[in-house]
Amino acid sequence: MELIKSFDEYNLQKLSRIKNPFLHDFIAKYVELCNPSKIFVCTDNIEDENYVRKKALEYGEEKQLANPNHTTHFDNYNDQARDKENTRILVSGNVKPPYINTHNREKGLEEIHELMEGIMEGKEMFVCFFTLGPPNSPFEIPAIQLTDSAYVAHNEFLLFRKGYEVFKRLRDNPRFLKFVHSSGELDERKTSKNLDKRRIYIDLDEETVLSINTQYGGNSIGLKKLAFRLTIKRAVEEGWLSEHMFIMGVNGPNNRVSYFTGAFPSMCGKTSTCTLIHEKLVGDDIALIRNINGEARAANAEIGVFGIIGGVNRKDEPAIWEVLNGQNEAIFSNVLVKDGKAYWSGMGVEIPDEGENHCGRWWKGKKDEEGNEIPPSHKNARFTVRLEAFRNVDLEALNSPLGVRIHGIIFGGRDTDTFPPLSEAFDWVHGVITKGASLESETTAAILGKVGVRRFNPMAILDFLSVPLGKYIENYLEFGKKLKHKPRIFAVNYFLRDKNGRFLNGREDKAVWLKWMELRVNDEVSALKTPIGFIPQYDDLRMLFEGILDKNYSKDDYIKQFTIRVPELLAKIWRIEKIYKENVDYVPNILFDELKKEKNRLILAKERFGEYISPFKFSG
Fold first, then answer.
1. Listed residues 386, 416, 434: the one ending a domain
2. What backbone phi and psi angles, to 5 degrees, belong to 245?
3. pLDDT recorded at residue 7
4. What is the pLDDT of residues 462-483, one digit of tens each?
5. Are residues 337 and 351 in contact, defined by beta-carbon separation less than 8 angstroms?
6. Is residue 2, in this structure, part of any structural domain at all?
7. Distance, CA of 520 to CA of 250 (rounded, Å)
8. Sign of the Cα pseudo-torsion (438, 443, 447, 450, in order)
9. CA distances from residue 473 to 171, 448, 452, 458, 532 in whole angstroms, order as listed
10. For labelling alongside 479, which of 42, 239, 270, 366 has CA 20 to 30 A away?
11. Which domain holds residue 321?
12. Residue 150 located in a structural domain
């Protein structure tokens, strides 16, 4: 094996134990290109993880907080989110699928390699091995990360399973995911300086991601959403699902646990659902779903959480609050720091009037160059912790080589006036098309600065697609065809409002919806058949609200929430049809057929009952 002189004997020996020429060639190529002054190879030993953690502090990328297990990190003031413009899928020729940000592969590689030349001079490269999904399982996907950021490597050790031993077992197998990241030149605060040269290029042909001149986790933590693009393509090619979904177990009667996955766009209740403290947490973000013996079985690609911290407080997010205030290891990114303690917006305690945050020295009322007041913590401030820190984590499910059997799939969006809080699809095809592929979510001020705009976001995956949308949906339908035991598909909507703009449900009501779904997948409650699927019966919900929340649930509440709003539902179908007809290159015909059936059912119901139909009309 011929590698660059930057390796000392100790680290060369560690790498030499992996007998994979494809791996050696990949590392040699980028060591020569990036030219680090030092290289550290990470095995699965805790000593190597501790070395990375120590270097994050030594190099100034992280600072110690008062809690000895907590550190904080700041990104550049303008490097606080995924860089959508410069995150590009590299494609051969001039192929430009809708909804996918692409760049010519040959030109893109030439450009980024030129920018990467010598980018690690004077810095240390960390060579890290991981696996997405449990090792020694059908879900195992080996991955290597080369990075000059100890902060990025530290995050990945918290978020992903170690894979050095997996790579030793690979031998000469060329199939593994590859990531190269450099923070580039750093400023006096140790944040990425050359943001104008920020690039995140995803080479599907070689299953490689190149990310430079950025530290923000969504751009730099390779195995997170960057790897997601690679696994989506692999899943579609091989006939399984790689999904933007949580995995959770819902406790049922007699110690029964039924497992669900759920896809929600940002700010729609995904994290607050899967971290409900009385249920079982398996994963909060990425689910790998395979057909194993006719069952849809899911495994968490990760073992940690890289979550938005804003709004996390003792009352609304008790499970996360407990973890962030415990003794487990945690990284706080872009929060406010004062006297060694982290503070963030919406935490429910008094926040100091000054301290240090993503803008440097901060004080209450400080404004940016455009005159906008700078909040104490960034709206996209994050925390990184291992899942094992949650007392309601289901470790057996998390580590199961065969994942868990999925009983139900939940799709949820932010919708003020159309969908009821809860409905169940008639079957797999109906659910995939009308609940998943038709998913919309209204924007909030925190996302786009414009409230109430409906954003089309099928399966909450649009931002991460690496294959044409039609092919992705077709794979979903084909996957279901081959299952002997198909999960039921549900839609939830936590954001329905009345005419005065008041929410029709409380934040805690999601606990009831989950219990009803758990009973449904076990055939223990019946339901009302409506034009858009099945909805709960009033008496079942009344008993659940009383038993779970000790809350009176009136018939008036039920009618307001579960009225079938025909005009709004028809308008939604017309919007979705138009999007697929005008903006998607290829769409399986069954999508339009299923939407037409739903439209016809709604029109017939309107002729019979009127435009706004009480759920009690469907009880006969």
1. 386
2. -135, 145
3. 86
4. 999 999 999 999 999 999 999 9
5. no
6. no
7. 12
8. positive
9. 35, 27, 27, 9, 20
10. 270
11. 306-386
12. yes
